[in-house]
Write a structure and sequence with these properties.
The chain is built from 10 helices and 9 strands. With 375 residues, it is of the alpha+beta class. α5 (161-168) runs antiparallel to α7 (190-205) and α8 crosses α10 (347-374). It is elongated and about 115 Å long.
């Protein structure tokens, strides 16, 4: 409705609008079921959702006016005499008042001290054991749905996803692909075309992360070349952002990485050197002729192994070996991602174990040098 200075009956029009905008807003309430364009004004179904706005007297009269089912031959009803009761705001035996208790229930006075709660069977559907979906439940569903909904305020303004929907035209492309690709050229199956349309719709209506209050994200597989994991956003998307901001350092070392190759080759050389040194030591000790020059290296390795086992047993006692860790990025918050890692527990004992390992590694390097020198 447009009103200008050239409009006829301007005063009458404003009087007409005033009828819409009175205290109770009947036009908005009656023309909408649950939500109206005006804040804190509900539609006709949810207008009286809050029972506290209605007095117990009115609710009691409303319940008594509805049809009910009355049980027969129950001992409890022998206490009732032929006496008339009427609705009130409180249960009162002396003045013959009963009152509203809660949904489908009224409070009936037996005497001055005791009351009885009588329940209606109006909420039971066809004598089945389930409750009817009350207007209060329906209105709560409407409220939760409208909290997440985005209004289309055409033609003034609307949310930016509608622009992308108009520009990409996924429905038009769906019918075009069904006609050309599926029927004419057989390039794609019906399932592939539908999945393509659904993916496009998901991409269009996924909100930007900049406008999302709580970003939910996880991580993909680790790339061995640069030891990074891609960040995967579940409830939003980033359009213009640097690639470095969309990756995170891997929580483990890939064996196909250059560092992984170096570690594996070092372990292989160390194991081979230690194995060769033990074999040589045992072989030389088996000869009585050179008993004076017996090699003691296999005793050295055995003693280091026993020390490591003892230290590791003490280290693992009373502590978790594997712990769950979380990733928190300050820019995005806590990630929907957990990974396993070894527990450090007692760092001092763990340092002793690694010192033994480095001693063995150093000794293996010395043995390799001696072996080359002896040749």
């Amino acid at each position: 409705m447009v009103i200008t200075k050239y409009s006829q009956y301007k005063e009458e029009v404003f009087d007409f609008i005033e009828i819409f905008l009175n205290d109770k807003y009947p036009y908005y309430s009656e023309s909408n079921i649950s939500i109206t364009p005006i804040e804190n004004i509900r539609g006709h179904m949810c207008e009286d959702m809050n029972d506290s706005k209605i007095s117990k007297l009115d609710q009691c009269n409303s319940m008594l006016s509805s049809d009910g089912t009355f049980p027969n031959n129950l001992p409890m009803f022998e206490r009732f005499n032929n006496k008339s009761f009427k609705c009130g705001n409180n249960a009162d035996f002396e003045n013959s008042y009963l009152t509203y208790y809660e949904k489908y229930r009224i409070e009936f006075p037996l005497n001055n001290n005791k009351t009885l709660i009588l329940k209606s069977m109006a909420d039971m559907d066809n004598n089945q054991n389930f409750d009817e979906q009350t207007p209060k439940i329906k209105c709560s569903i409407f409220d939760e749905t409208f909290k997440k909904a985005k209004p289309m305020q055409f033609p003034y303004s609307h949310f930016p996803e509608m622009d992308k929907l108009e520009s990409k035209s996924p429905i038009s492309l769906l019918f075009a692909h069904l006609y050309y690709k599926h029927n004419t050229t057989n390039e794609g199956s019906f399932e592939d075309i539908m999945n393509e349309t659904c993916d496009t719709m998901d991409y269009i209506f996924t909100p930007p992360c900049q406008d999302t209050s709580k970003v939910i994200y996880t991580f993909g597989e680790c790339y061995s070349k640069n030891q990074t994991m891609p960040i995967i956003f579940k409830n939003c998307r980033y359009n213009d952002i640097e690639y470095s901001d969309l990756t995170y350092k891997c929580t483990y070392l890939e064996y196909t990485n250059i560092k992984g190759y170096i570690i594996m080759i070092t372990i292989f050389i160390s194991c081979y050197s230690i194995k060769a040194d033990i074999i040589i030591s045992v072989y030389n000790n088996s000869s009585f002729d050179i008993s004076i020059k017996k090699y003691k290296m296999h005793y050295f390795y055995i003693s280091l192994l026993i020390v490591q086992i003892l230290i590791l047993s003490i280290w693992t006692k009373g502590s978790k070996i594997i712990v769950k860790n979380e990733i928190i990025i300050e820019k995005y918050g806590k990630a929907d991602y957990e990974y396993d890692s070894c527990s450090y527990s007692n760092n001092k004992l763990l340092n002793v174990v690694f010192c033994d390992v480095f001693v063995i590694l150093l000794n293996s390097l010395i043995l390799s040098y001696k072996g080359r020198k002896s040749k």
